[in-house]
Amino acid sequence: MITGRSRLAAGMVVALLVSACSGPLLANPAASLLPEPPASPVPSMAADPVPIQFPLDDGTHQRLTEWWYYTGHLRDMATGARYGFEYVIFRAERGGFPVTWASHFAITDEGQDAFHYAQRSAVGPSVDLGPTPRTGFSFSLGPDPTDPTTVGRPPWTMRGVDGNDHLAARLSPTEAAKAGSPGGMALDLSLTSAKPPALEGGAGWIDFGQAGGSYYYSRTDLLVTGTITVAGRAMQVAGTAWFDHQWGDFIAVGGGGWDWFALNLADGTDLTLSMVRAADGSDSLVYGTVVDKAGRAVHLDRGAFSVAVSGHWTSPVTGATYPAGWTVSIPSQALQISLRPTVAGQELDTRATTGVVYWEGSQVVQAVHAGQAIGGEGYVELTGYGPGG
After folding, report:
1. Hey, what long-range contacts does 299-303 have (CB within 8 A, 24 or more apart)?
2. Residue 40 DSSP symbol
3. How far apart are CA 159 and CA 166, in angstroms?
4. Which residues pair with 265 in a beta bridge?
5. pLDDT tens digits, one per residue of 323-335
6. pLDDT by residue (tens digit) across 8-22?
7. Distances in Å between the alpha carbon of 92 and those of 8, 52, 67?
8. Helix, strand, or coil (residue 150)
9. Domain 3-44+57-383: which topology?
10. Angle at 367 between CA 361 and CA 373, to 5 degrees
11. Domain range list for the chain
12. pLDDT tens for residues 163-179?
């Protein structure tokens, strides 16, 4: 996952704890009982890096920042209609503060040119249902006991171990109306990994220098079955998904934002690219990973690929202008890829939970690999272009 997503987690801590102290977000009557903030975040002081172990490291880590992130592509088994989805849980730990959590859930209705999203947050340990890391992860964000307006809110759950995962989320009527999906929006998906996990950075460790470092692995080819509901219509779906898990003692990397690409080509090649910008707009961290059909992963350094922007889109809601079309070239792989969004407006305003506005959406993918023209699927995430982003 893009290392710059740490800014979402950092913004989450500020958004949740400030709101808990002032009332509007969590409406927390016990806000006065929150501990005094430490002088600075307290990391685990672990001796990094160490080898990632499975399934041990699927679970929660006592680190400053962590997330479990899914994006995917689904088709209605009855009609063939196509949908994209995003589902993520962020965890942040900051010294004497309670653990803070945020979750984003989005569905892109590609045939109807529509995008729906919702967000939730929580403070405290109750979200994590997994008793030990060896059991994988098991989370539930349901009603907030400190906020009476959330009573009866259906839980959002996420669990998984060793590449066998289950995701479930359903919006309350209020949430569905706000998401522009009257009648309901939900997903209930089972996922099974078709390839071994890919260790990003070559060995699963991304070094940020003075900013710290992060463990990072991806499951690039998950087979998905289940149901989704959009605008009150429930349907059986099947498709594929991508999963990123990242954790470490870092807070914010990429002061100028980042562009992240996750692509699955029709010949079985999977590709992720991360381009993180410094505050002045220059590249501060650029890398990628290619995974072949057999699951073998090859690290790409910043000189191994190029990305050219071919279009732009301006949000009518926030006024932010985002790249909206790309050409990716990887000479060592004899690979060239063109991308364009399936739906232009896939922007999420998550300032209430993570403090940022960002764009994340499904793509139309066309590629030429070793002289062969092929299709594919993809997701792109863009931050640093909008308010707080």
Report:
1. 299/200, 299/201, 299/202, 300/273, 300/330, 300/332
2. S
3. 5
4. 376
5. 999 999 999 999 9
6. 555 555 454 433 333
7. 10, 20, 9
8. helix
9. AttH-like fold (2.40.370)
10. 140
11. 3-44+57-383
12. 999 999 999 999 999 99
